[in-house]
Structure formats: C-alpha cells, structure tokens
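Limitations
The structure tokens in this dataset are predictions for the assembled complex, not deposited experimental models. Users should treat interface geometry with appropriate caution, especially where small molecules or nucleic acid strands are included. An illustrative entry is reproduced here so readers can see what is and is not provided.
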Amino acid sequence: AQKVTQAQTEISVVEKEDVTLDCVYETRDTTYYLFWYKQPPSGELVFLIRRNSFDEQNEISGRYSWNFQKSTSSFNFTITASQVVDSAVYFCALSTSGTYKYIFGTGTRLKVLA
Amino acid sequence: KAGVTQTPRYLIKTRGQQVTLSCSPISGHRSVSWYQQTPGQGLQFLFEYFSETQRNKGNFPGRFSGRQFSNSRSEMNVSTLELGDSALYLCASSVGGTVWEQYFGPGTRLTVT
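Predicted assembly:
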C-alpha cells in the first residue's frame, strides 16, 4: 500500500524563523516520485518540487530546501527565514511509476506571524 | 501559457440532482486528473485520463464518472448528488506519459443542499 504521512497538522512560527515540514512515505515500489505543493489562502495548489527515487541529492531553491532520505522514507521541506507570504497549507505527495495516481498527505498548515 | 481552467467556479445543487464539471488543461498537456478536497478527507484522487483513456481511478462510488476529449479537455460528472459530495473539486494536468508534476486549476466549489 502507498501512503503519505504529514504528522504536523499546524505549525506557527514567527517571521524569520526557520521551519521544517515533515513528510514520511510508504511504498514497496522501487521507482517512485515525491512532490511538494503549496496551497495559499487563495486556494490554488502550486507545484514546488518533484524528486524521483533514484535521486537522493538534497535540493535548495532560494529559501526553500528539501532533504530526501530513502533510509527513513522521508522527504522533508525546510523554509529558511520564513516570511508571512509563506503562510499556506503544504502538501507532500507520492506517485509510483505506472499507477498514474498521486497520493497526497493530509497537509501541514503553516502560519508565519509578523 | 495559460494555466488550467475549471468551470464553473461555484455551484449550488440540490440533493438528487446531477452535475458536470469541466476542466481545460494547459496547452500540450495530455494527462488530466481529478481530486476531491474536503476538510475531513483532504485531497482524494478521483481518476486520471490520458489520451481519452482512464488509466486509474480512486475509491469512489460509480456516481462519479469522467471522460476526456480528443483535445485533452475533461469533464467529470456526479449523479444523484448527496450532501457529502459538497467539496472543492480540483483538476490537474501534466505532460503525461510518465510521472510528471501536476499543475492545478482553481477548483470548482460544489455545495449540495
């Protein structure tokens, strides 16, 4: 069975703090893809990153960074120096090759306070 | 390039009626997926279409159906609406073929009374 767990339901931080959003996934497939999406208050999900199971390199994009660890089945997302505009619900998702189906976690609501 | 568009944006229907939602993917995208988003269940996969063929479907009753046209536009239909069908219905498109990132539309907010 495939599953994505985002144990943190809601996180509140003060602006400029660093924050890490956790994502743990389950799959028996060896070829799979992981994603992060952002859903701001406006409602439209925005794609942030895609990572395949053969690429464990961490990725940094501006204030965003992602840590993929197959050994712990985790794909965590860190925002450095958070800003109020980062306030949103963040979803982690999993898809395995050939299923054409994306499994989403329940999301983590991030509130960045000024 | 225009994003994913969904129509209508808001709908109010009565229990027992049926509804059709429409989705136009990003130009060049051949895969369209549909999701139901509710506060209690989160984002749940409904079905995925590629080149007019349904490649996978989620665990929803047969009242939920969909189709894709030759221009990649997609529709989903819900018959015999129930109160529990009230949700935000999201459409997402991707290049298709294999597993690519999906780009989401703004959604259709369906309220069943």
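Some entries come with short summary sentences. For this one: The interface with chain B takes residues 33, 35, 37, 43-47, 50, 52, 91, 95-97, 99-107 of chain A (CB under 8 Å).
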